[in-house]
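Pasting two entries for a bug report.
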Amino acid sequence: MTSPRAPRTPAPAPRLIATDLDGTLLRDDKSVSERTVAALAAAERAGIEVFFVTGRPARWMDVVSDHVHGHGLAICANGAAVVDLHAGGTFLEVHPLERPIALDVVRALRAAAPGTSFAVELTTGIHYEPQYPPFFLDPGATVATAEKLLFEETPGAAAPVLKLLAQHPELDPDVFLATARAAAGERASFTRSSPTALIEISALGVSKASTLALCCAERGITAEEVVAFGDMPNDIEMLSWAGRSYAMDNAHPDVISAASGRTVSNNEDGVAAVIEQLVTEVKAAAETRQDTT
């Protein structure tokens, strides 16, 4: 005879939604659907804060800056920065990758994966090596070797490094990530969000999850009160940390394994579909409280 199961403790009411952008909140054409705009607004009206948590730099946040309510904050560069979108992307917090460590990583990856090229994302913009694919056109970018880009005549005087990007023209993306972690994982944090062999490198211990946890602690919000959404390996720590998490139907297999739930794809407004359910839950809970008072 089997023993009866203990009743499941109901999940706490959500107080904060943390969502990735590309491949998650945004459709493939980088738009925010009308349904998603309405869902984000409904969450705010229901008292649920919304944080955009992305690998994007602050200068690429225009696509969602009109949809940030209340606090106006976003976590950018995989947790390396907290920015105020209401103030034009002003940096409020920075968790930099120290330049000597970045140089060590460059040397280690050049040895472990010959053919790797690099870009350096600073608080002031991006700069890259001649061989690095020009995914974006930045008229202010400097083109030089990573060693020159990371050199500073007076230590500590140059703009902070938010992340280092490494690209390989031939390796499988997951193989490249594993190779990089094996070569220098004790020096920095490695992840990826691109379908190509493009790795994003932050200071050791810095991730979407680490900075989100700090922002939540400042607000007295626990992990159990957070609902997170993502689609790529740079979302795994955040999805594992949050009390409830959803992988998009288009997500990387490792992301699907890490999340506690799954929703439809970004092109089908998967984030909005869950938010609509969450808002209904919050309203029902509020009505129940009123009925019992």
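Entry 2 (this is the one that rendered wrong in the viewer):
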Amino acid sequence: MVVSLCMIAYNEAEAIQGLFSDISLQDYPHEKIEIVFVDSMSTDSTYERMEKFKNTDYGFMDVRIVQCAKRNQAFSWNAALMTATGDVIIRVDAHARIPRNFVSRNVYNLKQGENVVGGGRPNISSNVSSWKMTLLAAEDSLFGSSVAAYRRPSTQKEYMDSLFHAAYRRKVIATVGGFNENLGRTEDNEFHYRIRQAGFKMCCCPDIISYQHSRNTLKNMVRQKYSNGRWIGLTVSECPGCLSYFHFAPFIFVVALIALIILAIFGHPFLLYILLIIYGMFDFVNTVGCCTVKNMQPQFALLPFIFPLLHVAYGVGTIVGLLQIPFWRRKIRNSHAKEHIEKVKRKVIKHTVVRDYE
């Protein structure tokens, strides 16, 4: 099977160096790997580093570089899909690291009859320090980040609603088309929702693993959570079916907190005390859990303050997103997102190559 390994990037010159090294060391036959890089008009040396990789002879079937004028992630991924010619299309984030057998294990599991496969995607930190390890602990925690099962290595094959760094048979993309360019951070959710609606299953396999660099500063982590929450709010008006109840947990917490604070101001603080006690118990238990599971650092003492900061940022983001829906709908009224989804489908079908594997 020919594999198209795709990556998009904007100003990721430093981050992609490690990934490029990982790609060059893949144990799957290089003559069966097509590399597709999409540069979203970076202003640093991202494009130059892509060119350097292309001009270095690693024995790959082909290395293609596409430049996109838009910095929209969905637009860039669509460009990658329309460029890829492989029987298998694998998405890898610019902030990722992959083991030597990443491509080969994906192909192996697809050959077992699956259509979409992936594996655990734990977080790693690019710098080892007490503070960075503390942020990593917060990001890895179910309480601090997400209940998404793909964030942790799987012990057995199981089917999930979503996967990260997934590998897709070409026929999956030919059936559902590309990404919805109206969406920001939730384009994966909506894309995978359409895949499930089309009857395909997404299999998380224990022998597949990749890694994602966590944010290295609290400011960037809070900003990421706010943006994630905001896009959850906006996506309610575009594709509510692709969201789960868990996406709204921070929103419910923040709304309840605001309501109970107002109630307390008017002389009824009892319910606020109950909410804070219950939340405090979860906060404490998960902090202890991080200290037990992780290599404890002195700054882990800050986790009880980091957790609520991340939750509030996410919840406030969702509130803002919901309030922005009317303005956002007017903004995208004349967008061609649905036409672009179909355009990707037509391109993928047109570029499909029937290969003899005898």
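Dev reply: Rendering is fixed now. As a check, the viewer should reflect this: The chain has a mean pLDDT of 90.
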